[in-house]
UniProtKB/TrEMBL annotation, chain B:
<feature type="compositionally biased region" description="Low complexity">
    <location>
        <begin position="34"/>
        <end position="45"/>
    </location>
</feature>
<dbReference type="InterPro" id="IPR028081">
    <property type="entry name" value="Leu-bd"/>
</dbReference>
<keyword id="KW-0813">Transport</keyword>
<feature type="signal peptide">
    <location>
        <begin position="1"/>
        <end position="23"/>
    </location>
</feature>
<dbReference type="InterPro" id="IPR000709">
    <property type="entry name" value="Leu_Ile_Val-bd"/>
</dbReference>
<dbReference type="Pfam" id="PF13458">
    <property type="entry name" value="Peripla_BP_6"/>
</dbReference>
<comment type="similarity">
    <text>Belongs to the leucine-binding protein family.</text>
</comment>
<keyword id="KW-0732">Signal</keyword>
<feature type="domain" description="Leucine-binding protein">
    <location>
        <begin position="87"/>
        <end position="412"/>
    </location>
</feature>
From TrEMBL, chain C:
<keyword id="KW-1133">Transmembrane helix</keyword>
<feature type="transmembrane region" description="Helical">
    <location>
        <begin position="184"/>
        <end position="200"/>
    </location>
</feature>
<feature type="compositionally biased region" description="Low complexity">
    <location>
        <begin position="468"/>
        <end position="482"/>
    </location>
</feature>
<feature type="region of interest" description="Disordered">
    <location>
        <begin position="1"/>
        <end position="41"/>
    </location>
</feature>
<feature type="transmembrane region" description="Helical">
    <location>
        <begin position="88"/>
        <end position="109"/>
    </location>
</feature>
<feature type="compositionally biased region" description="Pro residues">
    <location>
        <begin position="14"/>
        <end position="28"/>
    </location>
</feature>
<keyword id="KW-0472">Membrane</keyword>
<dbReference type="InterPro" id="IPR043428">
    <property type="entry name" value="LivM-like"/>
</dbReference>
<feature type="transmembrane region" description="Helical">
    <location>
        <begin position="383"/>
        <end position="404"/>
    </location>
</feature>
Length: 342, 413, 482
């Protein structure tokens, strides 16, 4: 068979703009939902990069631990796997969601700080170059994944971890609330977008309005001067990891609302790469850039899937990343956490 | 510093409270809209099950149900005698990115071996694990050792098509019967190996039968075929699409990846089409979230899938969304006891191919119980085997494909 | 890349241009200084010095028997060394391919200092090129009966094509992305690795998608009655000389060829340019090194070596499928390079050996030196151990097991000979004193700081003339590899 025969028989890559037109608003709404999750995870990458000039490759595993954290919290509250707990009433549902989110935040935040202490601090003390940090992060990523894969099920008697995805516990039943240009907006979508918005605003205010935030910005801008001015660099770094972890934990709960079956040891990896791409897209080290990049990536990914075919989703994300880096190496909003106020 | 800290905490608390409030709004409106939240939650997954409805032949025509026997019990009658050290080998991905499938098979086989050893004091079988990581190259390292171990009289595996292709010659020359629980590439059985037996359905039978059943009996005029990227999914989707003919709608067909958990775009494509049904060619690990997301998006057309999805785990993971799903399988109804035995032994719920691992190990153990002591005897036993398993009827033709041509149609209700 | 840390620099001020041929009395005695600052006087360094001082024919004379010994390893069947749960010959075959990959990746990461997390993409392209051209499942099959190429020669004939296409892919990836630095480059290459795998998965009309391509060609050599498909076929098992051993030998040939190629490049202008780029790209650019061109060279050469390895892989397993080219492989490849000592060709080969051999060593083993162990359980946790090993290694020995040392790239041998001669004359002076007093200063000699070289120069580990240059080199290393 010759080349053109193959190509004529069936186009290798589909191209269907009409489908995009038909589904535009629905895809946008849904893309924003995913984008909100990307954005929250991306903040973790961007803060750490801004302060340490380090790609925290293991942040995806922090997110994964967050998913397990909120799941374990729900189990501890007496929910059972594969239970649709839609009958709790509004107040109780809210309460349980809140507790689960805190559970996820505690686990992810704790893990992030722990990771910093165990893996990164010894390297910083030795003044290691960034390649060494990156390789350590990859190692840590392996360790956390394999921990959840093999060790956690042994520790919990098979309740958590292992090779298969955890059976979902669902608290909110998706119901269509209203329509925007024919696109359905469900309560889950609303919860995710509004929660992410509030968390993003809170983080932005924390970075830009509080003393701690000023410390973070100072260290990001000029670590030496910041230290001279009495800012404890170590404490700021720990705080940075903590915030990133907390947001990843929150994102984990929002993600599982949308994708209840996503709780698995390998579930963080690709999402982490996407979130990192989002951070780079917006300009890594730039808080608002991460948020913008996350939403943009979520939406573009959805458009791309419909235009080229669903199997090209990850390719769309990676190509977008490469193209943006080629033409605007510092991302859409530019680098630097220190100048992120503008 | 202190004050700032307090203010920060306050800020976080505020953010949290606001989040909760928003969540409250979401749930509130949900309650307002439906007013039947309580009742919907009552239909939990507890009372959903995969129930057999009809049996069809290769042309999709209903055929009267023949009474099929109970699945073979690996324990046998408890009187088996065998040489000490007799063992069966298991080769597949036990570590690495594809570990889940290999471990599912291994754990399934362990349930059978455990039952056998507990019942037969005179014959203790060990199961030897050989890890291939799902990599054909690693399989070539492991295969000579399996063949060289004289105590191994049968092999469960190799798990994937790639490693099976790379090592088939080795096992064929050594005369070691290899029963694969998961290698689905249609070409594997065309190599002329006398020792290879495929423990799952031949897509060439199931595909056309289900496709014709959907068009002729169920009357679907437009079906969206969604496939995963495993060779099982790709092969099945080809057969289904060909069998559906004009009824297969290309504009809403989609391809997802094994391991995907969110299917937003595929869901959107289907919801904006006016298809009568969705056919999913793949495994329940993706089918469950997919079915759920379809229902969440308000798509309520029938969800049809095949034996990769026909597993109690599909119902457990998809919950209420699995209700009404139509699942085909060349197999009889599976009992629930397996799942509890599996979980008790392995500390986790059974997964894709666990049942196949159990069934194939059972066949080997039945052979040992019937007096088979070496590879040649086992090969002879398996070649002539005809029995009921948990997943399906096992009887192979001379290429090593399952020969049962009758397909069961199940419904989740 | 360099581990010469600010802390170390503080502790040991970089010397100014010291007058040559003057002894340095202030040298601390070896063994009492912190590891990072210890002069290079261990057994390993004596061995290195000895080796570097050998004439080329003598190096060959010592090297050849060693290579022969390695080649015969799978046949000798040494008791503890031979794997239990897996076939040692086949393990060595995989080691051969990993070693090739490590050499190729080392050019990119170790020598030019470009972190590539998508190297598996090149491996995949090499394997897929061979498979697409020789598998009967592919529409572009050129082998008989549909094509014109005889099965006997298909593998060898397609190999250069595979290498060329992989090299081209290195060019295609490199030219747009090599403007990026450090971490950005790492992530873009990671994306590239994934894109290659996804292309293989999605373009199923050509690549077979998830069903893969089977019956890939392999060399038909030594066809006999018992082995109708030759010694390289998967059917060749049982005897000591199984197919794994043959594939190992084949990859050994390619390893030696690429070692010669890379070794010569290293000593040429290209190699010096790579080192300059690795140490400080901006400085190199200012000094007139066309950095982009040489980075591209590193990418292309690294890629084509990866392509050779991929082609060997496809031939051995005769089946390619996208799942075998996961990101996790990229990480393992990088592990091999970092573990062995990036920049050191022999080090990365050792790293490859450890990555491949260690899990197999434990598989199926029930006792070790009489101590009962559960080898399978240990092997199950291998990724956990790899992760822990990476983290621990990065904290305590970031330069790898066999770190690369500062080495004279040009006219080196004469100097090493001189250094050795003086060392022999002054038995109690120690190598440092010998260095300090002996070697002639030479303006033509270039020496460079190296990745993971343990500490800056002031401890005087080199002839004085080059030491000057070495010190300058170290001055610039801190800014390297951002």
């Amino acid at each position: 068979m010759l080349v053109h025969d193959v190509l004529a028989a069936d186009p290798l890559i589909g191209f269907d703009l009409a489908a995009l037109g038909r589904n535009f608003w629905a895809l946008t709404v849904d893309g924003l939902t995913y984008g909100a999750v990307y954005a929250l995870v991306a903040v973790g990458y961007t803060l750490v990069y801004g302060v340490l000039r380090l790609i925290n490759f293991a942040h995806s595993e922090i997110f994964m631990l967050g998913m397990f954290g909120q799941y374990a919290t729900l189990l501890a509250l007496g929910f059972y796997p594969s239970g649709d707990a839609f009958d709790k009433g509004i107040l109780l549902t809210v309460l349980y969601l809140g507790i689960a989110m805190i559970g996820g935040m505690v686990v992810a935040g704790g893990a992030a700080v722990g990771l910093e202490r165990v893996a990164y601090r010894p390297l910083r003390k030795r003044g290691a170059p960034s390649l060494v940090f990156l390789i350590t992060a990859i190692g840590a990523s392996f360790v956390i994944q394999e921990f959840v894969h093999f060790v956690l099920p042994a520790l919990t008697g098979g309740e958590l971890g292992g090779v298969n995805a955890e059976q979902p516990i669902r608290l909110v039943e998706p119901e269509v609330q209203f329509q925007i240009f024919g696109a359905n907006v469900t309560n889950v979508t609303l919860i995710i977008i509004f929660s992410a918005l509030i968390l993003a605003l809170a983080t932005d205010m924390f970075i830009n309005r509080t003393k701690f935030g000023r410390g973070i910005r100072a260290v990001a801008q000029d670590p030496v001067t910041a230290t001279l001015m009495g800012v404890s660099r170590e404490r700021i770094i720990m705080l940075t990891f903590l915030i990133g972890g907390i947001l990843a934990g929150a994102a984990a709960l929002l993600y599982t609302l949308r994708v209840p079956n996503g709780i698995i040891y390998s579930g963080g990896f690709i999402l982490g790469i996407k979130a990192f791409s989002a951070a780079v897209l917006g300009g890594i080290g730039n808080l608002r850039g991460a948020l913008l990049g996350g939403l943009l990536l979520g939406v573009m990914e959805n458009y791309g899937q419909v235009v080229f075919g669903t199997e090209w989703r990850d390719v769309v994300a990676f190509v977008l990343l490469i193209v943006v880096l080629m033409f605007r190496p510092t991302g859409i909003l530019g680098e630097s956490l220190g100048r992120a106020r503008a | 510093m202190q004050r700032t800290a307090r203010r920060t905490t306050g800020g976080l608390a505020l953010a949290l409270a606001a989040t909760l409030a928003i969540t409250a709004c979401g749930t509130q409106s949900q309650g307002d809209n439906t007013g039947s939240t309580e009742s919907s939650s009552e239909t939990g997954t507890a009372d959903l099950a995969i129930v057999p409805s009809v049996q069809i032949d290769i042309d999709g025509q209903e055929v009267p149900v023949e009474t099929s026997g109970d699945p073979v019990d690996p324990a046998g009658d408890g009187t088996a005698e065998c040489a000490e050290g007799t063992s069966i080998a298991m080769a597949g991905a036990l570590t690495g990115p594809n570990a889940a499938l290999g471990q599912n098979i291994l754990y399934g086989a362990k349930v059978a071996v455990d039952a056998f050893n507990a019942a037969n004091a005179g014959c203790q079988i060990t199961i030897k694990e050989f890890d291939t990581e799902g990599d054909p190259q690693k399989a070539t390292q492991v295969a000579p050792q399996i063949v060289g171990d004289a105590s191994v009289i049968a092999l469960l595996g190799p798990a994937f098509s790639g490693e099976t292709s790379a090592t088939g010659d080795v096992f064929s020359q050594a005369g070691l019967p290899s029963l694969s629980a998961s290698a689905t590439n249609p070409d594997i059985t065309k190599n002329g190996w006398k020792t290879f037996f495929r423990g799952l359905a031949n897509d060439a039978v199931q595909g056309p039968a289900v496709a014709k059943y959907m068009v002729d009996t169920l009357g679907y005029e437009k079906v969206c075929v969604v496939q995963d990227n495993s060779d099982y999914g790709v092969g099945l989707a080809k057969e289904i699409t060909a069998g559906l003919g004009d009824a297969a709608d290309d504009s809403c067909s989609a391809e997802v990846k094994v391991g995907d958990k969110d299917f937003a775009a595929a869901t959107q494509l289907i919801s904006s089409s006016d298809a009568d049904a969705v056919f999913y060619a793949g495994y329940y690990a993706e089918a469950a979230p997919f079915a759920q997301q379809l229902r969440d998006a308000g798509v309520d057309i029938p969800f049809v899938s095949a034996d990769g999805t026909n597993d109690p785990q599909f119902v457990t993971q998809a919950g209420a969304a699995s209700k009404g799903a139509i699942l085909s399988c060349p197999c009889g109804p599976a009992p629930d006891e397996f799942a509890s035995a599996y979980e008790a032994l392995n500390g986790q719920a059974p997964g894709v191919y666990s049942v196949e691992g159990y069934d194939l190990a059972t066949i080997m153990l039945t052979g040992i119980a019937s007096g088979v002591t070496d590879r040649a005897g086992m090969l002879d036993f398996v070649t002539n085997y005809d029995g009921e398993g948990l997943a399906r009827t096992y009887k192979w033709d001379d290429t090593g494909e399952l020969s049962s041509a009758l397909i069961w149609i199940y419904e989740v209700k | 890349m360099s581990t010469s840390t600010p802390a170390e620099n503080d502790g040991a001020p970089v010397p100014g241009p010291a007058a040559p041929a003057r002894p340095r009395p202030e040298l601390p005695p070896a063994g009492q200084t912190p590891v990072g600052q210890r002069p290079h006087g261990g057994a390993g360094d004596r061995l290195r010095l000895w080796w570097d001082a050998l004439a080329r024919p003598a190096q060959w004379a010592f090297g050849a028997p060693f290579v022969l010994f390695i080649a015969l390893l799978p046949i000798l069947n040494i008791p503890v060394l031979t794997t239990v749960g897996t076939n040692f010959g086949a393990v060595m075959a995989q080691f051969g391919m990993y070693a090739l990959i490590a050499i190729g990746l080392n050019v990119v990461v170790g020598q030019a200092g470009l972190l590539d997390l998508g190297y598996v993409g090149f491996y995949a392209i090499g394997a897929y090129t061979l498979a697409i051209l020789t598998s009967p499942d592919s529409p572009w099959n050129v082998t008989q009966p549909e094509g014109w190429l005889s099965d006997d020669w298909a593998w060898l004939a397609v190999l250069p094509v595979a290498v060329a296409i992989t090299a081209m892919s290195g060019l295609v990836l490199g030219s747009p992305t090599l403007r990026l630095r450090g971490d950005y480059l790492a992530i873009v290459t990671l994306g590239f690795g994934e894109i290659v795998r996804l292309l293989a998965d999605n373009l199923d009309e050509i690549t077979g998608g998830g069903q893969g391509l089977k019956s890939v060609a392999y060399p038909r050599l030594g066809v006999t009655e018992e082995l109708p498909n030759g010694v390289f076929s998967a059917g060749n098992v049982g005897s000591t000389l199984n197919s794994g051993v043959w594939w190992f030998w084949l990859s050994l040939v390619f390893i030696i060829i690429s070692l010669l190629l890379v070794g010569n490049l290293e000593r040429s202008r290209v190699g010096r340019a790579w080192v300059a780029i690795r140490e400080d790209e901006d400085a190199a650019e200012i000094m007139g090194v066309p950095t982009f061109k040489f980075k591209l060279w590193a990418f292309v050469i690294g890629a084509s070596i990866g392509g050779v390895s991929g082609a060997i892989y496809a031939g051995q397993v005769q089946f390619v499928i996208p799942t075998n080219f996961n990101i996790i492989n990229s990480v393992l490849f990088l592990c091999a390079v970092v573990l062995g000592g990036q920049g050191n060709k022999l080090g990365v080969i050792l790293g490859a050996f450890i990555i491949v051999y260690l899990p197999n060593f434990f598989l199926g083993r029930t006792s070790l030196f009489g101590i009962p162990i559960d080898g399978n359980a240990i092997a199950n946790y291998k990724y956990l151990f790899f992760g822990v090993a990476l983290m621990v290694l990065m904290i305590f020995r970031p330069q790898g097991l066999i770190p690369v040392r500062q080495k004279l790239l040009t006219y080196g041998r004469e100097l090493y000979v001189a250094a050795r001669r003086t060392l022999a004359k002054m038995p109690d002076g120690g190598p440092q004193a010998a260095y300090a007093t002996s070697a002639p200063a030479s303006g033509t000699v270039g020496t460079v700081g190296t990745p993971g070289s343990s500490g800056p120069a002031p401890t005087g580990h080199g002839p004085d003339g080059p030491d000057e240059n070495g010190a300058t080199g170290n001055d610039t290393t801190d800014g390297g590899n951002r």
